Amino acid sequence: MTKLLCVYCSSSRDLDPKYYEAGEAMGRGLAERGWGLVYGGGNAGTMGSVARATKSAGGKVVGIIPEFMEERELAFHEADELVTVDSMRERKRIMAERADAFVTLPGGIGTLEEVSEIMVERGLAMHSKPLVLVNQDGYYDGLLAFLDRMIAENFKSAGFKSLIGVANTVDEVWPLLESPADFQADQLWQPRA
What we know:
Distance between the termini: 31 Å
CATH architecture: 3-Layer(aba) Sandwich
Structural class: alpha/beta
Largest sheet: 7 strands, parallel
CATH topology: Rossmann fold
Oligomer: single chain
Strand content: 15-25%
Low-confidence stretches: none
C-alpha cells in the first residue's frame, strides 16, 4: 500500500513563480520516492502545482475537497481519488487520518491553521507522524521565532520545536521524513503505562 504524504500549501494564483516551482519539485520528489499525495484537492496555486507534478511523475493523488470549492470548479478532477466533503473541518480530519507524514510549503492562514493543528496533536502525543516545514527563502522565520518565544516564556517545553523538522528547500525534506528527529511530548501528555 502506498504511503501518503499530506502537503499543506497555498491555493493563491498570484504568487512569485518560485513557490509554484517548489510545489512542482515537491510533487515530482514524492512520486519519485514512492509516496502518494493527499492534499486539499484543489487545482489552483501551489496545490495545483503539487498535484499536477505528482500525477505527471506517476504518483497517486488523493484530493479531499469541500463541496463549495468543487462547485466553484476548483477541484483537481485528474486525481486518482477525489473525496468531496461537507466542511473544511472534515477535510482536515480526513487528510490527517489518511496521511503517513506531513509537509508544509509556504501558504496563507489556511495553511497555518492546518499545520498548527497537526503540531498540537503531535505535541499532545496523539500521533507520531513526521512533520516538516519548508522554510523557503525564510518564509517561516517569523513563525519559528514565535515558537522560540513560546519556549523562552515557558508556554511550551524546551523540546517542543523538535516535533517539527525544518527544511530550507524541497530537497532537504526527504532526509527529515526518512529520519525524523525524536520528539517527547511534555510529561503531562506521556501515554500511561
